[in-house]
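INSTRUCTION: Work out how this chain folds

Token vocabulary: learned, describes local backbone geometry

RECORD BEGINS BELOW THIS LINE
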Amino acid sequence: MRSRGTFLPFLLAAVALAQAALTNDGVIRMVKAGLGEDLVVSMIKSQPARYATGPDDVIALKSAGVSDKVIAAMIELMAPPAAVAVPAPAATTAPAAGLVSEVGVYYKKGDVWNDLPPEIVNFKTGGVLKNIVTLGVVKGDINGHINGAHSPTSLKPPVDILVYVPEGVAITEYQFLLLRGAIGGREFRTVTGGVMHVSGGATLNLGTFESKKLASRTYEIVLPDLLAGEYGFFPPPGTDSTGSSGRIGKIYSFRIIQ
């Protein structure tokens, strides 16, 4: 056991070394000065340092009498911090990458899907419309009127349409309509309430289309041979928040120009 007088020089040497960043030479001097292994390791872990820990440096430390435990503490201190793992982004509910994420109807221009703005439809309660039932659901034949002679959206064929339907709604519930001119705007006669394939005047303005499913609730419709005129996609009444009164609704309209 060292006496107090004998230990003091070693303590002073350790304090002097602590005033500057420790290096390999500093560690070697502490070891050769007789400081215990645990004390040297403690100094390594608590003091700023600039150690060289390459293969030749480690061999030189070992040749100078530095123990494996001390060398390991030096290497551990100089090791780069572990990379922080970045969590993967959470999965989204968008229909598919590069498509759209909101319910609606879109047209393709170049490689970009553009919003097809809807227009307000006023349903006439006279003539063929005889039954407006509760909850704002219109059943039977209806006449729809849209203000303005033309849709604000003009397209040229072929027309590429994308429909992102609400949850639980099928693309076959949408109607593709030819709009005819009327006083003060455009009109159509169609069928609502789920009756789609009937004979008679109600199908006068009803067109056909084929769709291709691109992703969940997302359908592409290509209309290559449309003639000049006014057209629109009419969503089922249950999906139309403007149709709560049973007398108004919306239609995604466009105009074909040649």
Summary: The two ends are 105 Å apart (CA to CA). Residues 83 and 222 are 49 Å apart (CA to CA).
